[in-house]
Amino acid sequence: MGYREDAKIFKALADENRLRILSLLQDGERCACVLLEELNITQSTLSHHMKLLCDSSLVDYRKDGKWMHYSISKEGSERVKNMLNNYIR
User: Fold this and answer.
1) What CATH number is associated with residue 54?
2) Residue 87, class by beta-carbon neighbours within 10 Å (0-12 exposed, 13-18 middle, 19+ buried)?
3) What is the pLDDT of residues 62-89, one digit of tens each?
4) What is the DSSP letter of 73?
5) What is the pLDDT of residues 24-57, one digit of tens each?
6) pTM for the full predicted model
7) Residue 56's domain spans which residues?
8) How far is CA 83 from CA 2, 7, 39, in A?
9) How many CB atoms lie within 10 A of CB 31?
10) DSSP summary character for residue 60
11) SS3 of 31, please?
12) DSSP 3-state of 89
């Protein structure tokens, strides 16, 4: 993994709403509709945040009908832990 990929992860983590999303996903998969209610943000804002989280591989998604369902990526979370360990051991 290179600095560019690491920076993408740091960027995904560097926002209050995205950290709140990750916190909400700790209990398991959530529908976008539930995240919208919990966060009190617009659908377009949620889409923006989810794109960054998914592009950084921190969050997985699946489509069910018209709704997206999101969950924390086990592989992505392990990668973040290892990445941080490389920078701050």
Assistant:
1) 1.10.10.10
2) exposed
3) 999 999 999 999 999 999 999 999 999 7
4) -
5) 999 999 999 999 999 999 999 999 999 999 999 9
6) 0.90
7) 3-88
8) 10, 10, 28
9) 14
10) E
11) strand
12) coil
